[in-house]
Amino acid sequence: xxxxxxxxxxxxxxxxxxxxxxxxxxxxxxxxxxxxxxxxxxxxxxxxxxxxxxxxxxxxxxxxxxxxxxxxxxxxxxxxxxxxxxxxxxxxxxxxxxxxxxxxxxxxxxxxxxxxxxxxxxxxxxxxxxxxxxxxxxxx
Length: 140
Fold this sequence. Notes:
Order of helices and strands: HHHHH
Shape: elongated
Structural class: mainly alpha
Oligomer: single chain
Largest sheet: none
Helix content: over 70%
Number of strands: 0
């Protein structure tokens, strides 16, 4: 990991990693973003951190969506086994999602969350690009 990242506090996990998440995975994602975007100023580091945080939270949201469907499939397992002797796993997943969609609030909220996180990610990338463009224009 770059010393600049340490200097600017980008390795902190207190704000980003939940107690059941892996701090090393967060550090790895952040390190990869630093390597990919190569921030050179404190403001660029801030934007790279925002990019990493958005990606981290998107991953978290995806795992929550997966867990919701898994839990619903578990809840339906006895009825599924009793009612569908020859059904495959696609039908099992479809029934779980259909049930989850009958109360759209959780999935609607997750969908809104996903959109907001994607926008936050895109905004951070655009801010970084615009900052670099402005710096290059001033240098020319």
